[in-house]
Fold this sequence. Notes:
single chain; mainly alpha; 7 helices; 61% helix; elongated
Amino acid sequence: MNKSDKIREYFRKHPNTDVAAVAGKFEASKPMVYKLRGQVKNEWQPPAMVPMPEAKALEVQVAGSHYKDMPIQPVEFIYANGIGYFEGNVIKYVSRWRSKGGIADLEKAKHYIDLLMELEKKS
C-alpha cells in the first residue's frame, strides 16, 4: 500500500482529523493531504441501516386497521427483507386490497409492477 492509499485509509477511519496532523504523521505535503481527504469525502458511502421502529409505532395506525390487524405488517416484512420502494408498494397494496381499497389497490400494485418493469428494461 503506497503513502496515498495509507492516507486515504486513515481518513476513512478518522474523517475529522486535522490535515496538518495527518501530513505530519505520514510525512506528506499539506496540499497532497487536502486532495486525498477530498477524494475520501467524495467516495460513495452506503446508507446507514435505519433501525426498525419501536413496537409502539407499529401498534399505531392512522386511518383504519387494515395493517394493524395482520399478524405481520407489510412494513415489517419489507424492512426485514430489504425490499425496494416499488416492490414494497406492490406488497403493501396486495396485502390490503380485501380490507381497504378493493380492485383499486390491485390496480395500484399492477401500476408499480409496470413501473418497475419499464425502469428495469431501460437499465
